[in-house]
Fold these 2 entries.
Entry 1:
Amino acid sequence: MPLRQDLAVTGSVNQLGDVQAIGGVIEKIEGWFHTCKLIGFTGKQGVLIPEANVRNLMLKDEVVEAVEAEQFHIYPIEHIDQGIELLTGAPAGEAQSDGSYPVGSINYKVQKRLESLSRGMREAAGLIGEEHGPGSSI
């Protein structure tokens, strides 16, 4: 899937997909803001940050003004799926009761790719086991 290149991403994600607070968020936002300003605002550029960092934001006036004018965007997110949706424009997809994901969602595509890789590794392990199994001379 192609990912948007006009959005910067900063944060930390735990094994459950929860986006965790980080240090230096102000500097990271302002650094990307200045990069976008140098190349020219498109009205679509922005940054994804942990929701937990919002309460600590003290941005320069020019950044606040650009956000208010919708020249630059700050997207606070709590879960990686929110970031996936912003970066791809496609639904992440929630796990269904059987552990599968809705067809066409990003998580469905990821699940299918992981299943394919797993199948390939099992097949390769079976071939290796036949060629170089216990008792064979390598």
Entry 2:
Amino acid sequence: MSREPRVVAGFHAVLARLRAEPAAVLEIFLDEARQDARAKDLAAAAERCGVRLMRVPAKRLDGFASGGRHQGVVARIEVRHAGESLDDVLDAIAGPPLLLVLDGVTDPHNLGACLRVANAAGTHAVVAPRDRAAGINPTVSKVASGAAESTPYVMVTNLARALDEIKERNIWVVGAEAGAPQDLYAANLPEAIAWVLGAEGEGMRRLTRERCDLLVRIPMRGQVESLNVSVAAGVCLFESVRRRSLRAT
């Protein structure tokens, strides 16, 4: 399996990766001007984990982060699942799959938040089309707080075809859409499920919607008509988690 380094910026993202999988942290670059408690805590954590930490000028960090906000720290991370195909990911799943499919999420902050909530819910992978999706970059990694390096993010050439492949494995494709006839909490949801969400405002594309076995809506009790895609993803994924826990008792 191919591996490639990725840059992660910001104290929270670097520390999260260091705590979750220190062996994947290749090296850390810390602003030589920072002598505060946060910088010292990071340096101590790196030493405990045996990770090389270098003090460098802030301008060098600017170059690593490609102009993004880095707070004085960046790290080079080995991405262990890089190069995995959808088949690779699905073949490796033990038990009922839980997937998140994003159609048209192009904002890096939204993608990072979706990866973070997907990881928290124990989602096996996040799937997105190559032509209408944000890629993993320092902003995504920072918002994801380590999830971008630990949750497989599979970009497919043809999303409709990928959904067909998912369905062939007896995984239900369930779309979340504001105008859907069924309430999320009343719907009969299977254990093996791929949740599909579109971008806020635009929603799912027609071909994506047509591939769904079921469409459900998140009931809205207040004045707002919709949720941010990452919040909606969290609601749907954790509803699946809740139902799985009830079946297990």
